[in-house]
Write a structure and sequence with these properties.
The chain is of the alpha+beta class. The chain is about 40% helix and about 15% strand. The strands form two sheets. It has a four-stranded antiparallel β-sheet with strand order 3-2-1-4, with helices on one face. It has a two-stranded parallel ribbon with strand order 5-6. A hairpin with a 4-residue loop joins strand 2 and strand 3. Helix 4 packs across helix 5.
Length: about 210
């Protein structure tokens, strides 16, 4: 069994305000804005678009377009992770998840438990219903609270609230809009199938080499 990820949430001591930095990443779905400090990522803001790119293939174009100078380590890790998510999804599992520095993720609450469960247990290319996620988080009757947690998520994509759908299979609501949610789900489905085919191809090649 794979080891369970323990998300890192840093808490600034002494009450001094952190020096917030801002970075913009030009992604296949538009400009993603990221804020954070040397302690951790504060927030990821997704673009709201009425039209998204055709198809959900991985893209080679995903670069920092603003704020590349003097990025603190959490923002460097965040942009590297998002770049991999869009361009080389198979590598995200080997990359560090950046530390988070947001009040919602520092308080001991059911919302935080839901977000941690989502980050740990719902993998790339998978989807769960609100009720299923409530059950995974320890309270199967709290589907409505799970919906609230998804709306409150300050770190979308990395904490993958787009993978939470309605019980009837509809994609449901999303902070970045329904089109973006459907694009992300489609992107993951296509990339997961592609990775699986590559694994099967490698397996066949190894079997052929092993034959006398």
């Amino acid at each position: 069994m794979a080891s369970r990820l323990v998300p890192k949430v840093n808490s600034k001591q002494g009450g001094s305000p952190c020096k917030e930095k801002h970075v913009a990443l030009l992604s296949p779905v538009g400009k993603i804005e990221i804020s954070g400090c040397e302690t951790g990522v504060h927030e990821i803001k997704l673009p709201k678009m009425s039209v998204l790119p055709a198809g959900a293939e991985s893209s080679v174009s995903c670069e920092v377009c603003e704020g590349a100078e003097e990025m603190p380590e959490p923002l460097q890790q965040c942009t590297a992770w998002l770049r991999a998510y869009f361009c080389e999804p198979g590598t995200t599992a080997s990359l560090p998840v950046p530390a988070f520095h947001h009040p919602l993720l520092q308080r001991d609450s059911f919302t935080r438990q839901v977000l941690w469960t989502l980050l740990n247990d719902v993998k790339f290319g998978e989807a769960v219903s609100y009720q299923q996620l409530a059950h995974l988080a320890g309270n199967s009757r709290a589907a409505r609270a799970v919906g609230g947690a998804m709306r409150s998520n300050p770190i979308p994509i990395i904490i993958p609230c787009h993978r939470v759908i309605r019980s009837n299979g509809d994609s449901g609501n999303y902070g970045g809009g329904q089109l973006l949610k459907e694009w992300l789900l489609s992107h993951e489905k296509l990339q997961k199938e592609k990775l699986q085919k590559e694994k099967e191809k490698l397996k066949l090649q190894k079997e052929k080499l092993a034959c006398p």
